[in-house]
Design goal:
With 304 residues, this protein is α+β, with helices and mostly antiparallel strands. The chain is 31% helix and 25% strand. The strands form 3 sheets. Strands 1, 2, 3, 4, 5, 6 and 7 form a 7-stranded mixed beta sheet that branches. It has a 4-stranded antiparallel beta sheet with strand order 9-10-8-11. Strand 9 and strand 10 form a beta hairpin. Helix 1 runs antiparallel to helix 2 and helix 7 crosses helix 8. It starts with 5 loop residues before the first strand and ends with a strand.
Length: 304
């Protein structure tokens, strides 16, 4: 874990409580070599995405501190939110930022970290490049049934790859975590307008079906249509898993065209977390209408 390569961690934590978030930020900041680039909180989701980068060993150290802090203050038995989730630290992905020559060492380091956190009592389902079962590569399948079905999964033998295998009060409190190495991904939502909430939600779900890869749409695009109460907006919410094949500019333009065909508008968009600067080679943050809900500050643009 001490090799000199940089990685990114983008944990999704199941809280929007400002006091808890302050404690988690302090835990990450406690590791000097780690650069916490952005903290992105969704009130309706009751969920926060942290983005931090640094040398691999430092990022793993910060992630351990982040998880320990989150588990100390979040009780999944009391959690609710509009976003799918199954644990206090719901998803904890690691992304290699440096040359692919470090890939083997990176994957090994992630596996070692997973095992280590499992010994500390965190139930972990491995996913993406770290998946130990082919059926668990896809996050949506790993999280199927969400927190509410976890106890039944444990009872049926669908237990985590690392950590506790028996459901008890400690597991009930923290839920489980999806953890693994994955390629770069961009979380990007396009806002719809020009109709009632009900009309726009129908349109958003239709557009999501049209553009998502699994239904014959754009390569690397996962998408759903949803309504976010605290922002009072209907969105086509996307995860771009191949952002250098299908980037934010193409997705935004495609959603705009689909919305126009249906008689609606897609005037602007929302970025969750951070984004590589190469995503803006053919458009700009202004073109995408970023910044309506959260400032599009320079620290959200990562230098790769």
């Amino acid at each position: 874990m001490t090799e000199n390569y940089r990685i990114e961690c983008i944990p999704n934590v199941s809280t929007a409580d400002p006091d808890v978030l302050e404690k988690i930020c302090a835990a990450i900041h406690a590791v000097p070599e780690v650069d916490l680039r952005f903290v992105d909180t969704g009130l309706s989701a009751n969920r926060t995405v942290f983005t931090y980068i640094g040398p691999a060993h430092a990022v793993f150290e910060a992630t351990e501190k982040m998880i320990d802090t989150a588990l100390a203050y979040i009780d999944m038995r009391k959690h609710s939110g509009v976003h799918p989730r199954m644990g206090a630290v719901d998803v904890c992905p690691f992304v290699l930022l440096d040359d692919e020559k470090f890939q083997a060492a990176f994957l090994k380091a992630v596996d070692q970290f997973i095992e280590y956190m499992g010994t500390k009592g965190l139930p972990i389902y491995t996913y993406e490049h770290s998946a130990r079962q082919p059926s668990r590569r896809n996050l949506a399948l790993v999280r199927q049934g969400e927190y509410e079905q976890l106890s039944y999964r444990f009872a049926a033998g669908d237990v985590p790859d690392a950590g506790p295998k028996i459901w008890n009060e400690s597991v009930a409190k923290c839920g489980s975590t999806a953890m693994g190495a994955r390629p770069l991904m961009v979380a990007f939502n396009v806002n719809l307008s020009g109709g009632s909430q009900k009309e726009l939600l129908v349109a958003a779900k239709q557009i999501a079906r049209t553009i998502r890869e699994r239904d014959g749409g754009l390569p690397g695009v996962k998408s759903i249509g949803w309504y976010i109460p605290d922002l009072d907006v209907v969105q086509v919410s996307c995860n771009l898993t191949k952002p250098f094949k299908t980037g934010v500019c193409e997705v935004f333009q495609t959603v705009q065209k689909q919305a126009m065909t249906l008689g609606y508008l897609a005037p602007d968009s929302e970025l969750i977390g951070c984004i590589p600067e190469r995503q803006f080679e053919i458009c700009t943050p202004s073109t995408l209408g970023l910044g309506r809900f959260k400032p599009m500050t320079p620290d959200r643009i990562l230098p790769y």
